[in-house]
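Quick question: what would this complex look like in 3D?
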Amino acid sequence: MPDDPGERSIIDALLEGRPRVGPPPIVDVGDDVAVLPGGLAVGADTMVEGVHWDDKLSPADVGWKLVAVNASDLGATGARPAWCTLSLSLPRPLDLSWVRGFAAGLHAALAAFGVRLVGGDTTRSPGPRVAALTMGGPVARPLTRAGGRPGDALFVTGTLGDAAAGFAEGGPGLAALRRPAPPVALGVALAESGLVNAMMDISDGLFTDLSRLCAASRCGATVEAAALPASPQVAASPQRLAHQVAWGDDYQLLFTAPAERLPALRQLSGDTPLTPIGRLDAAPGLRLVGADWPAPALHHFGDSPAC
Amino acid sequence: MPDDPGERSIIDALLEGRPRVGPPPIVDVGDDVAVLPGGLAVGADTMVEGVHWDDKLSPADVGWKLVAVNASDLGATGARPAWCTLSLSLPRPLDLSWVRGFAAGLHAALAAFGVRLVGGDTTRSPGPRVAALTMGGPVARPLTRAGGRPGDALFVTGTLGDAAAGFAEGGPGLAALRRPAPPVALGVALAESGLVNAMMDISDGLFTDLSRLCAASRCGATVEAAALPASPQVAASPQRLAHQVAWGDDYQLLFTAPAERLPALRQLSGDTPLTPIGRLDAAPGLRLVGADWPAPALHHFGDSPAC
């Protein structure tokens, strides 16, 4: 998921000329996770101190979030998180109390998402703390970003913009920033239901992620600004729309399905709110009804736009 | 694999209290790789600039080595490397020529070891370059460090000390430092043959790694200094023994088997040299015949002993 202009060039360099050895994946690079022959989903997400977190997050929050964001990617493909490896690079002198806090949050999330830590390594870092996690798990019926069809209704789970509001304003949104709780089991249920055409998680903001879903599905989309589900804090914020579409860290599901399936989908989602926010169109491009799209934020702390 | 005194504390903090969710692995944390139910081997190894490489390695060497050291871990458990994810953290402004060089070496090694890059992520790093790779592959008959028995003969593949000599003295050993070529297919063949009792790769030096094998197998070992296989450069070096046992980056196999199986083992190993270097003993501790053990080096460039 490119987070700055340089990232696209890096990914291109890594993928161009990549040897195509062994059996091809069922879902290849470019979706939330890859799905290997046999139905193993594997994804990797890294958090770098000063880029993906600052002192708003405790060490335990960082450990929790690292597991949650990876579980979010798996769930958004319909995979059940099962195991992970952790590569942790830490500066010296070693701050062991940081490590213990990190481990406590990591363990809490591993228990919450049902994931076993099976390996990894630790290295010295002459720079910031870097925590790279790879997570795997079985997937019976993978769902990608590519299956959306013009006319599909667009749905999101939960509320959008909480983490952004928490980062900008403090308050209750801080909990969403610190301890994201992606609806992983619902992602699996939606994928296995066969009711859904395309799905992904919202990690980089609705505008950015919906653009990706539309690109993969070769269509456009129209979103109703007033329909975007908001917590009371976000609903009351003067930056409501920017928080909801132009930031990130929501870790909710974005998916498409024929509108008439809403009752069946609501039955599946149980207590998790599920909101229709618009539709996919044949015409390319993203349209926002009732407002202008705010410019997507570079939501990583301290990211420089020049690179 | 602890590379400094702080690393053990980090690993303890991460593993103590780790939730034991889901089915237990066949081989758990603490061996070269984990083996999950169903026979999937997974391992992770990270390289940090200034810690695991300096300017003796080109960007392409770094890309090659990252794949090779991970493939080495899998092969040493009897697993066939199949896929990997890569998490790459790079400073800005972005040096795209570094990325292209890295990708070229990475791709060459992926082709050589038969591994498909299926995912990962790239992030900005305010510090050094960090490349974390997780590799997986099937294993029919996992071999761990724990199966060694007193009386077993100790074997190593290839020659020892080349990378150390290359690092210290330059010359032909530089190739081993830059482009390690672990005998991965031989590791798989040895594991599947049923001839071998315990196996691991030598990545941190014979002294350190043999200590780990002995700890896992609950025994000691005696090594014949004169028997350690050496290339001409290492054989001629005044630091021969230190290079061979106290450094690292050999990426050869260390394994134990009844001595009388040597002919059958040699038949399996084909062109790869296979040398008996000693035996496992019931008495704990490592004994070196014909010399004193040199103190293990902290072989990571720039590692500080104080942490």
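Answer marked as accepted. Confidence is low (pLDDT under 50) at residues 301-307 of chain B.
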